[in-house]
Amino acid sequence: MNILGTSLRVCVDDLDHAIDVYERLTGAEALRFHRGGVAVAAVGCFFLMSGPERELSILRKITATIAVTDVDEALDDLAAVGAQIIAGPVPTPIGRNVVARHPDGSVFEYVDRKQA
């Protein structure tokens, strides 16, 4: 699998304030979207997330988001190392994603920019 980059997940109470802070720190402009009941802003290498605690508690279990060229290729490599697929692959606002638990117990989201 070809890993293009990693995004850190940050759960925040005040998304607008957090966007101001992270835009200033990264020099990047926020890209906003919603995922279920959660408002998300991608700012540089950060995913800022705000919403109901019941949804954020699930999202906090994912260590990071890893951008890959192809989720299908990632699935093959994840299977080869014994990872457990928890969710997906499913379409997202920017492509497709899959959530996997690695053999050590770490949980990661893998995303590509291919449309389903």
From TrEMBL:
InterPro entries: Glyas_Bleomycin-R_OHBP_Dase, Glyas_Fos-R_dOase_dom, VOC_core. Gene3D superfamilies: 2,3-Dihydroxybiphenyl 1,2-Dioxygenase, domain 1. It holds the Pfam family Glyoxalase. Residues 1-113 form the VOC domain. This is Glyoxalase.
